[in-house]
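Bench notes, bay 3.
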Amino acid sequence: AYLADIATTSAEAKYAAKRVRRWMRRRYLLLEVPQLPGRGWVEYEPYGTVLIIGAWNYPFYLTLGPAVGAI
């Protein structure tokens, strides 16, 4: 039970915490010739509030796995 539920969720949370800065970093784009000498980039922003509904008698991972991804 520990390996399937808690260890998997913990590993996913650690991975997400380690990579979140990289995922949210601004990414610069190459522009077309007519748009030069401008600059272009993609900047990620959070959407807002998230509601995750899970059953109390289901495995731990089925509720907290999506929560880690949403955060």
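Next record in the batch:
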Amino acid sequence: ADLRGVLSPGGAAFLEVGAGQAQSVARILCDAGLGAAQTRADLDGRARVLRVRRE
């Protein structure tokens, strides 16, 4: 899906990612023209959720 095309300017999306995938997915999203992703940890301390914004 084209997340950039779905989000309004300034809109945000939250994505759950597999353990160990946060950095790779964040880089893909940044390369796709979305802003830098912020990560949130799960209860085990692993980066699990990415928040991205369309600028």
